[in-house]
Specification:
- The chain is of the alpha/beta class and 500 residues long.
- It has two domains: 291 residues, Aminopeptidase (3-Layer(aba) Sandwich), CATH 3.40.630; 132 residues, Glucose Oxidase, domain 1, CATH 3.50.30.
- The chain contains 15 helices and 16 strands.
- β14, α10 and β15 form a beta-alpha-beta unit.
- This is Amidohydrolase.
- Keywords: Signal.
- GO terms for molecular function: metalloexopeptidase activity.
């Protein structure tokens, strides 16, 4: 014969589970469709059409403010106002704290050789040339697989007192700089191996000679002037500048287990920044609007739009420094995205498990975030690849703070390989985004398919973590905690001598 007390406990626990799940104990009709989960609802609600409207707004803001939305410009402030206005109209409380950063001001950027004149970009932490520049014969390094990476590359070349021209690739910029300095060069110009600007930096502790970047076209033009007298005059200074970033959070969900999603908002001074950074900012805004300020979630969702990322991730760093250690513990994880609508798109997920061996040790939980993004995209027949966490981006600050981090990226200046073109479509040998950080990063530089797919992935993953971060940090979802409390209560009463 069964024990009536045991039977009563079972019935009570089953009833508790049904109440917590929002269901009745009776069986639902077989034809009734299962209700959509929050991730499913969000992915349906967040559309490329709505995001594209935000991109039109950012383009128009740039067009009416000198062609830029850089952090120190009116275009950035109006971009911030646009996002803040949309969020406030949707019921969000918006904060726009100030932060300061060192803005790089260009005093001179010119290099000449013979009749060729180009505009170099000073590499980060490079020393300035003296006023008027440095001069010497133009020496062009051979273009093998590792140009300018070994002292042997200078064999037979008289680089002492020369301006050396080196193709990018094969080793870090600092290594190219060091080999050139050891050879006696007075300046180094490193031109890109793909379409796009000459970007990058050198180790400040090793910086000895002025080092600047060039586009591929500029480098090839100078190659034709080999042996002529060259002059490089590249000088910058820094000015302390004040700007703002934006943070908002849902009014519902646990405030001590927050899911934080962020994107860079500002552009370079030379463009509107519609793929880099507008696409991610627009997707994040649309996601917040569709989620609403008071969704039924277990964990609060915090959204952030950063400024001055290209000035050493300044806004994200200022934000984290404003938090105590306990407040940082309230952040369960950080999700970052950048350039998610690249015209020749790839589908990259940040390497949270360091399976490629280049990311380095990552905070616990980052591997699970990588798996969540890859699972969503792979489940829709979209293959993914790992990508390294670029330490120039905002997510660096969160990794350093030990916060689990992950995100998405559609590629920028690097060329798409034959294998990547075979699985993703597009054109092999062409940059994922040939307008990366160039004037042409405008509304014509957006792939709507990539935008839609990546926005859906963000919506699904954010929606999932809004319900539970258990696989990232071990915090169980609200329904499980409630179930455990409900199930344990009768046992506790019995242990205290209560009757059933």
């Amino acid at each position: 014969m069964s024990n009536p007390k045991s039977r009563g406990r079972v019935l009570r626990r089953a009833a508790a589970a049904a109440v917590i799940a929002g269901t009745a104990i009776s069986v639902a009709p077989a034809a009734q469709a299962a209700p959509q989960t929050l991730p499913e609802r969000l992915t349906r609600a967040v559309t490329a059409d709505n995001i594209h409207r935000h991109l039109i707004a950012l383009q128009r803001i740039a067009d009416t403010n000198g062609g830029s939305r850089a952090a120190h410009t009116p275009g950035y402030q109006k971009s911030l106002d646009y996002i803040a206005g949309k969020l406030r109209a949707a019921g969000f409380q918006v904060n726009t704290p100030e932060f300061t950063y060192n803005r790089v001001v260009v005093d001179s950027a010119v290099a000449t050789a013979g009749s060729v004149r180009v505009v170099p970009t000073q590499m980060t932490d490079s020393p300035n040339t003296p006023a008027g520049g440095v001069s010497g014969p133009l020496v062009v390094l051979p273009t093998d697989a590792t140009p300018g990476c070994q002292p042997e590359d200078y064999a037979g070349l008289n680089a002492r007192g020369a301006v050396v021209l080196i193709k990018r690739g094969g080793c870090p910029f600092t290594q190219k700089h060091n080999v050139a300095a050891d050879a006696g060069a007075v300046a180094a110009l490193i031109y890109n191996h793909v379409d796009g600007p000459g970007l990058g930096g050198i180790d400040p502790a090793q910086a000895r000679i002025p080092t600047s970047g060039l586009t591929t076209a500029e480098g090839l033009a100078l190659t034709a002037a080999a042996g002529t007298q060259a002059t490089v005059d590249v000088r910058t200074h820094k000015e302390l500048t004040t700007s703002r970033y934006l943070v908002t959070q849902t009014r519902t969900g646990r405030a001590d287990n927050v899911v934080l999603a962020g994107a860079q908002l500002d552009s370079l001074p030379t463009n509107a920044g519609i793929n880099d950074t507008g696409a991610s900012s627009g997707a994040l805004l649309e996601l917040a609007l569709q989620l609403g300020s008071s969704p039924r979630v277990g964990n609060a969702i915090r959204f952030a739009w950063w400024g001055a990322e290209d000035a050493d991730k300044t806004a994200a760093g200022a934000y984290l420094r404003s938090l105590t250690f306990e407040q940082q513990l309230d952040i369960a994880l950080y999700l970052n995205s950048n350039s998610i609508a690249s015209k020749n798109a790839g589908y990259f997920v940040y390497d949270g498990d360091n399976s490629s061996g280049t990311a380095g040790p990552m905070p616990y939980g980052s591997a699970q975030i990588e798996r969540a993004f890859a699972t969503y995209l792979n489940g829709r027949a979209i293959p993914t690849e790992d990508t390294n966490f670029d330490r120039q981006w905002d997510h660096t600050q969160f990794i350093t703070a030990g916060i689990p981090t992950g995100g998405l990226y559609a590629g920028s200046f690097r060329p798409k390989s034959e294998a990547q073109a075979a699985k993703w479509g597009g054109t092999a040998g062409v940059s994922f985004d040939k307008c990366h950080q160039q004037v042409c990063d405008n509304l014509g530089n957006v792939d709507r398919t990539a935008l839609d797919r990546n926005a859906d992935a963000l919506a699904s993953v954010i929606g999932g973590y809004a319900l539970s971060t258990e696989d990232v940090n071990g915090v169980p979802p609200r329904w499980r905690r409630a179930f455990d409390r409900a199930a344990a209560k009768p046992a506790a009463v019995t242990a205290l001598g209560g009757s059933e």
